[in-house]
């Protein structure tokens, strides 16, 4: 965080394909309600879509936890077996939506253009997109980190129209080689990539607006490294996969 960063650090948990409705309820019953960090943390959980209503209900209206979905389709409805729309996600209790997570890009072949369409669909429905970008190990070795993350972020924002609120989104820098591997980017690596993304946003949407966009770091964040990452220049929060599945470790990260 820096002096002119967005005010509350964001602690986001991506459950991926873990925790059905019953497990989601158990998690929320066991996640501590009292949080006394200063500044307070903004907590967002991304359960599987089928668990979202159960999670929202179990958290209740006073938990201070926000929820999101891990993916949407860009069309509002239609013959797209297995997909959900932004409107359906919102109706089920989501306020946020991950878009372009590296598993969507690399396991399911999602393209930069599809990411852009999804960001626009989310923004058009009032869901706040969390745009995920990040380089592979090969791209890092080739010295292409800046080029890759700027290309991904450019495409992600390209489909947003004037009427939508292009200022209200988050970015998550998640180097592909750090996701689920136990490898974490060093604070210097994270600060460099976050700095690149911030400068790009400054050029694109202006300095003041760019500094209101939280840029999260993700990739093997755990209780033991969360404090270091959260105190890194330009890191406004964390997106946590594996370590968000257990209420105790996610609470420790939220308190870091
Ligand atoms: P990880 O996942 O924390 O398990 O590395 C992060 C993510 O994929 O968002």
SSE blueprint and pairings:
Layout: E1 10-14, H1 21-30, E2 42-46, H2 52-59, E3 65-69, H3 86-91, E4 96-99, H4 102-106, H5 112-124, E5 128-133, H6 137-141, H7 145-157, E6 170-173, H8 187-205, H9 207-210, E7 215-218, H10 223-230, E8 237-240, H11 247-254
Parallel strand pairs: 1-2, 1-8, 2-3, 3-4, 4-5, 5-6, 6-7, 7-8
Summary keywords:
256 residues, alpha/beta, eight-stranded parallel beta barrel, 11 helices, 39% helix, binds 2-phosphoglycolic acid
Architecture overview:
The chain has 256 residues and is α/β, with parallel strands linked by helices. It is 39% helix and 14% strand. The protein contains eleven helices and eight strands. Bound molecules: 2-phosphoglycolic acid. 2-phosphoglycolic acid binds at residues 14, 174, 179-180, 218-221, 239-243.
Secondary-structure-based class equals alpha/beta
**Judging from the principal axes of the Cα atoms, what is the shape?**
globular
Calculate the mean pLDDT score and round it.
Answer: 93
pLDDT below 50 for ≥5 consecutive residues: which ranges? none
**Proportion of residues in helical segments:** 25-40%
From the alpha carbons, calculate the radius of gyration and give it in angstroms.
17 Å
Going across the biggest sheet, name each strand in turn. Answer: 1-2-3-4-5-6-7-8
Biggest sheet: strands, sense, closure? Answer: 8 strands, parallel, barrel
**Span between N and C termini?**
13 Å
- Series of secondary-structure elements, N-terminal to C-terminal: EHEHEHEHHEHHEHHEHEH
Chemical compounds bound to the protein: 2-phosphoglycolic acid
The proportion of residues in beta strands is: 5-15%
Helices, by number, come to: 11
